[in-house]
Amino acid sequence: MGMKDAEPGTVRPGGRTARVRAAVLQAAGDSLAEGGFARLDLADIARRAEVGKTTVYRRWGTVTGLVADLLLDMAEQSLPRTETGSLLGDLKANARLVQRTLADSRQGALFKAVIAAATCEPKTAEALHRFYDIRVREWAPCVEQAVDRGELPADTDPHEVIRAVSAPLYYRLLTSGNALDEPAADRAAEAAAAAARAGVYVRREEAD
Q1: Which range marks the domain in which residue 63 is found?
Q2: pTM higher than 0.90
Q3: What is the 3-state secondary structure (H, E, C) of 24-37?
Q4: Among 78, 118, 199, 200, who pairs with 125 as Cys (CB 3.0-4.6 Å)?
C-alpha cells in the first residue's frame, strides 16, 4: 500500500521519512504542551519541524490525524513493563512510570491537553483510547503472573487492576494542585494490590 493510499498518520516508513515523522511529532508535542489542542496548527508545526508544509498536510491531513500519530508513537516508545517477581513490586514500577510521565512538565501538560481535547473530539478520543489500550496490555501480564503464582484470585481481570493503579494519579493530576510524587505512586500501587488480593477485580457474571 502506498503512502497516498494509507490513512493519515498510519505509515511506518524508515530513512528520511522516519526522520521527518520524528521531527514533526516532536514539534506537535511541544506545541500541544505549550498551547493546548486549540492552538495546534499544521503550518506552525511544519515551521517548527523545519519540514515543508505540503509534506505535513499530505501525510497527516488534519490536526486530529497528527495527534493520533503522536499518541501512537508515545505508546510505542513507552518503556516496557518491569518484572520484579511480586505483584506489589510490579505495580509500584508501573505507578512510578506513570507518575514520572505525568509529573514531567512537558509530558504532563501534553496529556492534559489531549485529555481535554478528547472530551469533544471523537477522533482524538479514539486515539487516546488506543494509547491506553496499548499501555494496559503491555502491563497486564504482571497481573496474570501474580494469578499464576497464587498471589491473586483466579479470574482476576488484569486490565482492571492496571487501570486501577493509574486512576488515582490521573485524578490527582486533573483535579488538584498537589504534587504528583513517588509516595502518591506507591500508595496507588498498594491500594490496587490490596483491592486485587481482596477479589475486587474478579470477573463476575453480569446479572440478567
Answers
A1: 3-74
A2: no
A3: HHHHHHHHHHHHCH
A4: 118
